[in-house]
Amino acid sequence: MKQLIINGNKQLSGEIKISGAKNGVVALIPAAILSDEGVTLYNVPNISDTKSLLDILDLLNCNVEYKDEVLKIDTKQLENKVIKEELAKRLRASYYFMGALLAKFNYVEIYFPGGCNIGSRPIDYHINGFKKLGAEVEIDGNKYVFKTKKLKGADIYLDFASVGATINIMLAAVKAEGKTTISNAAKEPEIVNVASFLNSMGAKITGAGTSEIKIEGVKHLKKGVIDVIPDRIEAGTYVIAGALMGKDLKISGVIEEHIEALLSKLKEMGVEIKKEKKSLIINKPKKYKPINIKTLVFPGFPTDLGQPVSVLLTQADGVSIFEETIYENRMGHIKYLQKMGANIRVNDRTAIFMGPTPLKGEEVVATDLRAGACMVLAGLTAKGTTIINEIDHILRGYENIVEKLQNAGADIRIKE
Ligand code: EPU
């Protein structure tokens, strides 16, 4: 079993360059199969979630070339196949093949998706959306079967602004006959990225990035091209690393508006952030003021940064309150922060941090992707050696995390 070994409390400086967004590319790759010709994606991160989706493309008989962050997908020989359990359960985003294959073939067989264990994570909004567009849905053991004679545009209201449901319905509706409106749509930047990609193929989508998305169905989608947006959660994670241990640490390739909620909270804590064109320079302050954080949908504070930012809350001078509102079970990191010396009380989805508490190196577990990022940040801050187990979760979403941190001065390595 691979482990991450970190000898902590080392200053971080130099530059960390942000990769393409995991939660963007995992939707863009399934969206690619909607093109009848083929697509090119730039800035594609080399993470294990990308590889898992390429394995699904291989199953569907797409020809793929992936080199130097450029991914070319030839869809001309695409075939509809059952998405096998072993492939579907490797990641959450396998579910985007539901919408994409339904639009392409009017028929999909796909096993239940996987993903981090952070709550029950139902997909009822996706399914209700497909039904409104005219699909029938059956559950056969661990497998979904979707079928339709023809998808037709519909007005779809989401009870909650779900990222996954918004994208999946957009994928299904793009070739449906007539107009679709998604109300209370999610507004995350990854949704805009997917809509731009589909529009580059000839789709007619307007309103992405607002709470009402309109889609006018088209018959064919041609060649497409897209730059994957920078990963705002990866950027946020390294900005937090800078707030914890940075001396003029430069985080480059960032779209600042995508992490505005985090930056504003860090400033409230007293962290010095200098802005340059597409870069941020972060310095650790002498002291951190305590703050309160509540996770919300975009542009609110992202749930995916809740676990990473927890390390900073352990260092604040006083009581900080953190509330998770998106998932019911995203507190897997807390017991390991406590093991490292943090003083935290948890009540359901709220965690109360009493700081500052020095952290000491310990053997811990990455219980999920962002809990793993939290453990890395804790390890970088702690005195002594931190050993992180189950690091495959981390490698699913952070490209070259070890090299990036080593280049910034961290003492971190993978033990095979
Ligand atoms: N929900 C439902 N029914 C649905 C869909 C969602 O009840 O049909 C609930 C979920 O259970 C959850 C909430 O709505 O409580 C939000 O879920 P959403 O659909 O927005 O999340 P997601 O699409 O499953 C994506 C990211 C997550 C990120 C969330 C929120 C991907 C592959 N995953 O998940 O990323 O936390 O949006 O921004 O894009 C991560 O990167 O660590 C991660 C978990």
Rg measurement, Å: 21 Å
* Number of discrete domains: 2
State the CATH class of the largest domain. Alpha Beta
Helical residues, percent: 25-40%
Low-confidence stretches: none
Query: What compounds sit in this structure?
Result: uridine-diphosphate-2(N-acetylglucosaminyl) butyric acid
Strand order of the largest sheet: 21-22-1-23
Strand content: 15-25%
Number of strands: 23
Provide mean pLDDT, rounded: 97
Oligomeric state of the chains in view: single chain
Q: Tell me about the biggest sheet?
A: 4 strands, mixed
Give an overview in words:
By secondary structure, the chain is an alpha+beta fold. The protein is 32% helix and 25% strand. The chain has two domains: 3-19 and 230-415, UDP-n-acetylglucosamine1-carboxyvinyl-transferase, Chain; 22-227, Enolpyruvate transferase domain (UDP-n-acetylglucosamine1-carboxyvinyl-transferase, Chain). The chain has helices at residues 22-32, 48-59, 85-88, 96-105, 124-132, 163-173, 189-200, 232-245, 260-269, 306-315, 334-339, 369-381, 392-395, 401-407; strands at 3-7, 15-17, 39-42, 63-67, 70-74, 107-111, 136-140, 143-147, 155-157, 179-183, 204-206, 212-216, 224-227, 249-252, 272-276, 279-283, 292-294, 318-323, 344-347, 350-355, 363-365, 385-389, 411-415. The longest helix is centred in the middle third of the chain and has 14 residues, at 232-245. The mean pLDDT is 97. The chain binds uridine-diphosphate-2(N-acetylglucosaminyl) butyric acid (EPU). Uridine-diphosphate-2(N-acetylglucosaminyl) butyric acid binds next to α1, α5, α6 and α12. Uridine-diphosphate-2(N-acetylglucosaminyl) butyric acid (EPU) binds next to α1, α5, α6 and α12.
